[in-house]
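Here is the promised in-class demo. Please do not try to memorize the tokens; focus on the logic of going from shape to residues.
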């Protein structure tokens, strides 16, 4: 494992990340609930969001494991990358073909991307906090709190 000075994410950044995740998911779900579309369409958009969140967090974890020299298989990395790209492509294609106003399409796209970004930020904060906790338990280690 590489030895770098650990930086704990600031409390403000941790709270902002969680707030962005909750707001993004809530906006997306409220938009789906209020949408005038068939139930199977709503289900498609819900699954696209859940698939995107899972694959983005999985990709972030895989990349972080590789940075910390934790063994990760190439196939898992490629599947995570392909899944993340596929989730975005599936949503873009569905929005392109949907009979929605342009403003609604933009709303779903922005809420989706905001949720993906926030999920990655929350996962990163969890990993950073865990690495700082592990590092603090070893002697002669300085921990710096800073913003990302």
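The designed amino acids, position by position:
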């Amino acid at each position: 494992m590489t030895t770098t000075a650990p930086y704990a994410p600031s409390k403000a950044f941790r709270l902002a990340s969680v707030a962005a995740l909750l707001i993004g998911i809530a906006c997306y779900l409220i938009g789906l609930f209020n949408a005038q579309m068939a139930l199977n369409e709503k289900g498609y958009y819900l699954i696209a969001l859940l698939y995107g969140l899972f694959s983005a967090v999985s990709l972030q974890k895989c990349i972080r494991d590789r940075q910390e020299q934790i063994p990760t298989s190439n196939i898992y990395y490629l599947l995570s990358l392909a899944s993340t790209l596929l989730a975005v492509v599936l949503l873009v294609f569905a929005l392109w073909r949907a009979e929605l106003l342009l403003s609604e399409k933009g709303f779903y796209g922005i809420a989706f991307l905001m949720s993906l970004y926030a999920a990655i930020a929350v996962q990163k904060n969890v990993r950073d906090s865990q690495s700082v906790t592990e590092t603090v338990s070893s002697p002669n280690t300085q921990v710096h709190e800073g913003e990302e």
